[in-house]
Inverse folding.
């Protein structure tokens, strides 16, 4: 196989997933950096799932470093978390370039987030406890960590349905021979206005925004001494944990209540079944086309 060139990768139409919205930070900083690292990974023969596994390892190590309240260790932890985010972009770029996008890969990526993000809060809470001596720092860190988990199965149906009806995957011929019910597809994945104030507010409680906020606050605490609040010495990270350790559980309870009340999980499950039934029906009507997998 002919080795890939940097020019080919730059011109590759789906290097950046059009479905993703990462904001100015991801677009102007992370993506330009990931281009060259993706190129190196492709030349080394790395597979997308291997990079995903590496991202999980790097992210967990970064979270562990946050539990050690020493400047060098904390900076190393922030660096590893940020590098894990870069790897999180690289695995998708590799998968799309090699046409090996799969639901298994999406699942592994979701598992990685489910491991790294809570560990990030756990490590931060433990590190703040060692730095200030306030036990509630650990409690707040664990509350924020557990509340950051997706506790509803609708996210699995969401990802599966999005993969099935995605225009990006059709461009790769994964499901080009299937004609699914447009109504089911619309019900499966309704886009929300990501520029609305409420969506922008929610984004502050989601990865990678939380990681970037933590990065800034950890670096600030290295150079800024704790301040006195109501007779207690508190740091910026401690105040972050106090806010997020309370608001994240509240937000998660509201989300689960809404899912139960509106039966969103059941609706998404039934919509996905409709998509799959339409796919199976179409596949039996004619010979299957060649797959890029």
């Amino acid at each position: 196989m002919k080795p890939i060139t940097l020019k080919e990768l730059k011109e590759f139409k789906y290097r950046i997933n059009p479905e993703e919205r990462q904001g100015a930070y991801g677009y102007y900083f992370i993506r330009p950096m990931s281009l060259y690292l993706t190129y190196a990974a492709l030349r080394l023969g790395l597979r997308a799932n291997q990079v995903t596994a590496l991202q999980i390892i790097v992210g967990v190590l970064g979270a562990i470093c946050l539990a050690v309240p020493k400047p060098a260790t904390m900076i190393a932890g922030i660096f590893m978390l940020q590098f894990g985010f870069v790897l999180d972009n690289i695995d998708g770029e590799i998968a799309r370039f090699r046409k090996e996008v799969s639901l298994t890969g999406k699942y592994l990526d979701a598992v990685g987030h489910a491991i790294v993000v809570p560990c990030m809060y756990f490590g931060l809470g433990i590190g703040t406890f060692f730095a200030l001596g306030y036990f509630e720092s650990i409690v707040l860190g664990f509350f924020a960590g557990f509340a950051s988990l997706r506790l509803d199965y609708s996210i699995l149906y969401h990802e599966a349905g999005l993969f099935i009806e995605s225009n990006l995957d059709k461009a790769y011929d994964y499901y080009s021979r299937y004609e699914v019910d447009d109504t089911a597809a619309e019900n499966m994945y309704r886009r929300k206005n990501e520029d609305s104030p409420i969506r922008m507010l929610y984004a502050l409680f989601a990865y990678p925004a939380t990681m970037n906020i933590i990065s800034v606050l950890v670096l600030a605490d290295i150079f800024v001494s704790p301040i006195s609040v109501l007779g207690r010495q508190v740091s910026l990270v401690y105040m972050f944990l106090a806010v997020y350790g309370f608001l994240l559980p509240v937000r998660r309870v509201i989300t689960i209540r809404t899912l139960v009340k509106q039966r969103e999980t059941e609706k998404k499950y039934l919509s996905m079944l409709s998509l799959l039934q339409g796919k199976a029906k179409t596949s039996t009507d004619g010979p299957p086309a060649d797959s890029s997998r």
